[in-house]
Amino acid sequence: MTEGRLGQATTLAIGSVVVAIAVLALKGVAWWLTGSVALMADALESIVNVAAAVAALAAVHYSSMPADDNHPYGHAKAEYFSAVLEGALIVVAALVILHESWGALRNPRAPEQAGIGLLVSAFASGVNATWALMLMRRGRALRSPALLADARHLWSDVVTSAGVIVGVGLVAMTGILWLDPLLAALTAVNILVSGFRLLRESVGGLMDEAVPPATMDRIRAIVAEQAEGAIEAHDLRSRHAGRFTFLEFHLVVPGGMTVREAHDICDRIEAALKSELASAIITIHVEPEGKAKQKGVPVL
């Protein structure tokens, strides 16, 4: 990531911390005003948001450190650790909410000052929604797993909060008290699913998952188009590491081709791939025609 993009990612991560603290304070006020266990669940998720935002800030900072002797491929995977931590925190929060929901279901009570409490909660959700949409857009542009994980979690929080607000309003209007803890439990289940999904995606990054099939097809097409003069490319492999995409393959060239000519072909392929995949790290191993496998990427 360039210095400018790094600065943008860091600024966004700091902004996430500030927004998370402000939303937590607002939701805490809404819970304090109403005593609603569903709004308590919403506030608890915001505590996770604060912790996750701090983790994302640390990950963005650490992942930006240049490669060194101990980490010759850089520190980009640090962002996945942040996403794993966030997923784990989400799961813990969901379990706490389920415990509180069970207690409230056994002894339900009506929310107090529901009107003003719900207005405060709605305002907090509006702030969250605005920030989540902006964070998702910028996180994609910067290819930051930590920022994207934070954005997805915030959007999940927005959807959950909307349901909670409607539900608590129904409790206040109908007097059906068991709806409040039921909504809290449903909130917890939604949070739990979100947490497990985030954990799965983050672990996939740590385990060097390959690029999606559609992206791999595009990579193969670019290699075929740009490798004029070569014979074939084979053993094409890929993996993600944070914002970087690592690609490596063997390029078979005629036995009489000079080193300079082979190098020019590699440069042409690398330039085309990097124009398609930002922050691509490409390794090409040149081989003589006797190494052709007849099952790789044929050159157009």
Compact description:
Keywords: Cell membrane, Membrane, Transmembrane, Transmembrane helix, Transport. The protein has helices spanning 3-34, 37-63, 78-106, 114-142, 145-174, 179-206, 213-226, 259-276; strands at 232-241, 244-253, 280-288, 297-298. The protein has 300 residues and is an alpha+beta fold.
Please identify the top-level CATH class of the largest domain. Mainly Alpha
> What would CATH call the architecture of the largest domain?
Up-down Bundle
Number of domains: 2
Radius of gyration: 25 Å
Biggest sheet architecture: 4 strands, mixed
Give the low-pLDDT segments: none
N→C terminal distance: 33 Å
Calculate the mean pLDDT score and round it.
79
| Overall 3D form | elongated
**Total beta strand runs:** 4
Q: Roughly what percent helix?
A: 55-70%
CATH domain fold name of the largest domain: Alpha-lytic protease prodomain-like
Q: What is the CATH superfamily classification of the largest domain?
A: Cation efflux protein transmembrane domain
Order of the strands making up the biggest sheet:
3-2-1-4
Q: Give the class from helix and strand content and strand pairing.
A: alpha+beta
Estimate the strand proportion: 5-15%
